[in-house]
């Protein structure tokens, strides 16, 4: 099955990733055969390990215990893969600002908050969750475990045999074999990822959501990565090359075949962007704060500007101010003060915006205005945890 699936992707790539293909799309999922149970010693062992890990995860402080948010994300998954398949999955939202989601063999799905910050619609989220479910349904973890065991067994025997031979060519042959085995394992991982992409897109093609969103996920991620690199003064990244140690296909390749294999007739389907924005609303400030804490100015600014494509809100202006104030250059502080002011103009009771405004003004030689802003902050938030620090700061200005 993997060979035929990869053959479809290969045909797309050989054809120059023509996005207008009308003859090939990701195939629909096979009929649901019921929730499978672990089979064989290896799989039973993997499930036991994951059962123990899930018990720890469920009580972890890293998990966001918000029933409404978790239920919403689970519903998005169900809308893609169907309720019958979806019932075998337990979703956990992990407060971690990176772009990621994982799926364990026993049905544990971890969705990182950084992923929720980056996708813009239910269709985009469903594309990623469907991909993860594809790993689960095709038992990729078990396949990788067996492949790694075969590879390391081979290397172990080769090491023993080469140790009996003092010929330097024997050592060189072992080094070549080692390189070949690790390369094969990494290529195997990349093929698993391609197959999961194809399975996930197959779910999306037969769902009520727009499958073209899958390619958009990777297009947005490439744009963010490039913005991050430019801000750091680094070379523009290449998205069309496979590094030796890469565990996933390059983003450019994924965007190309996902766009080409999406059902063309489904391009007018809804993507659920409004519902997604509403569901994420209470958590967006928290996710933005975590993102800014990554100290990735270019990536964070790209994300804030992307979120603002639907209109600037007081929350977005505030966090843009926080981003610039965190970088701390004098021009940054001037810009930050302006962004805080924009937030206050939209929400005059935004206490934390007055705090940021006051601190930015004090550092840009505007102590009188800064003191007034901080006084307003304490007036709006009299129980502020940092009240003593703010009062000390304003007192030092006298």
From TrEMBL:
- Mind telling me which SUPFAM superfamilies this protein's record contains? TPR-like
- Entry-linked Gene3D superfamilies: Metalloproteases ('zincins'), catalytic domain, Tetratricopeptide repeat domain
Domain named Peptidase M48 is located at: 89-258
> Which positions make up the signal peptide?
1-17
Question: Looking at the Swiss-Prot or TrEMBL record, what is one Pfam family this protein matches?
Answer: Peptidase_M48
Query: Superkingdom of the source?
Result: Bacteria
Entry annotated with the keyword Ribosomal protein: no
Q: Which cofactor does it need?
A: Zn(2+)
PANTHER family the UniProt entry points to: METALLOENDOPEPTIDASE OMA1, METALLOENDOPEPTIDASE OMA1, MITOCHONDRIAL
What this protein is called in its record is Tetratricopeptide (TPR) repeat protein
